[in-house]
Amino acid sequence: MNNVILNLIEGVFAFLFLLGLILLVLRYIALPILALILSPILYTLNAFLRIIMFFIIIIKKIVLFLGSLFGVKKQNNIRKDYYKESDYISWEDFMDDDPKDKINDSPYSILGVSPDDSLDTIKQVYRNLSKVYHPDKNKSEIAESEMKKINTAWETIQKEKSLIK
């Protein structure tokens, strides 16, 4: 009887060990390889969908312009746009969630400017980004974290530029 129980316990431990090993292989080998394979495909799909959205917006503007030429009145009860640019999260932003990557971000790359740009140019870019990601305008958690990064980058650049002068 004791041998049966010991064999059962031994079998359970062997099963748990194999399950843990399989999960480790999935986590550290299979999923990163799958992400590497799917990433370019999804990136290309995202670019394609952006192009389609661009053409839809252009067609919409042409239709509205032609409608205004021929006296068609715009209906006020229909929502003007189906989405806001600030609500849209691109595939690059979604994939850029690795904390290791964020350590290497320079303040200039966060704001999307060059170190050679003037402080006035950088300030204008900072203000535009603040309008998009400000918590009063965009309630998402991503916007809140982006706003913190933007503010930190702006403060760092201000200090750096004031030391250079």
Q: What summary fits the major beta sheet?
A: none
Distance between the termini: 85 Å
> H/E series, N to C?
HHHHHH
Per DSSP E runs of 2 or more residues, the count of β-strands stands at 0
Return the structural class.
mainly alpha
List the helices and strands and how they pair.
Elements: H1 2-69, H2 91-95, H3 99-103, H4 107-111, H5 119-133, H6 141-164
Domain J: 106-165
Keywords: Chaperone, DNA replication, Membrane, Stress response, Transmembrane, Transmembrane helix
Pfam family, one: DnaJ
Overview of the structural elements:
- The chain is mostly helical.
- The protein has 2 domains: 1-82; 89-165, DnaJ domain (Helix Hairpins, Orthogonal Bundle), CATH 1.10.287.110.
- It has 6 helices and no strands.
- It has helices at 2-69, 91-95, 99-103, 107-111, 119-133, 141-164.
- Helix 5 (119-133) runs antiparallel to helix 6.
Provide a concise account of the structure shown.
The chain has 165 residues and is mainly alpha-helical. The protein has helices spanning 2-69, 91-95, 99-103, 107-111, 119-133, 141-164.
